[in-house]
Protein: ABC transporter ATP-binding protein
Amino acid sequence: MTSTQTADRAALDSLESRARARPGDYGANALIACESLVRIYQAEGIEVQALQGLDLLIDPGELVAIVGASGSGKSTLLSVLSGLDVPTAGRVRVGEWDLMAMTARERVTYRRTMVGFVWQQTARNLVPYLTAAENIAFPQALAGVRGAARKRRSAELLEALGIGYCADRRPAQMSGGEQQRVAIAVALSNSPQVVFADEPTGELDSASSDQVLDALRAANRELGATVVIVTHDSGVSEHVERTVAIRDGRTSSEVRRRTHTDEHGAEQVIAQEYAMLDRAGRVQLPRDYREVLELSDRVRLALEESHIAVWPDRPSGAGAAGAGSGEST
Ligand SMILES: Nc1ncnc2c1ncn2[C@@H]1O[C@H](COP(=O)(O)OP(=O)(O)OP(=O)(O)O)[C@@H](O)[C@H]1O
Structure:
């Protein structure tokens, strides 16, 4: 082992022991709880840390977008949450399922009953020679649902997602947006608690994207599924209440949107950006804030009555530091 590898191993061990030493109450009420998640890939002797201690909590009933640049770790996180991949270290739980400790058989049951998937490539979601209704009935048949109940569920889902008219069409007879909406119905067919959608609008024009995002919202609000959309398209944020940004394999910030109705009845969407505070108390300051105030290396902190002030580390008088700048006496 080289010294770098030894140091990495030590860092990994410390992350893992930290995750394991913590009391089991982290995110106890969350449906999805990721804690200090690490995923290291080894490819031809080169080590890539795709997830670097990622913490994430998602509550039951949420509709969340996870956004990040290419290579930030989104697909890796999705592979872990969907039970396709096992992280190198950390903890990950979805409902009652401990994804670090599942057997191969449990993994199959988890994927069949607990979660549903919508992939970017429309062709990956649907069987080409089956109609939309048959595609939705197929996973139900695998789960042992009887014929009449299957038909009823398929028709209900198609109606709920606004594509009842596609019931007897095969994928090649539908637009990309219609195929993705059928894919959402397929994902929902066995009433999973969570639907994961990986770049579901990646191959679509903006009108079709809006319809697919509306269908995911219907899956969430009307059909009660918790929905997690993974995307590099920041436009998706406008369709969800919570957007979590991933950077360098960690959650870095999040935006929450809510609709405020003023005294005249006019509705206004208010978006508030938050930095993530991890379990060790670390906060990542947004890059634009750092650049405006030229923050680097070191900052001074001051505990105020209702907030913490962060000051550039410049000599007194040279920066914004004033009363309460955190200088010790
Ligand atoms: N199987 C693998 N073997 C080696 N490295 C991998 C593997 N899968 C992903 N990586 C690396 O891990 C990092 C995170 O990749 P990941 O695919 O999770 O990012 P992403 O945010 O989903 O990117 P994109 O939006 O381009 O799909 C990248 O540096 C990637 O090259």
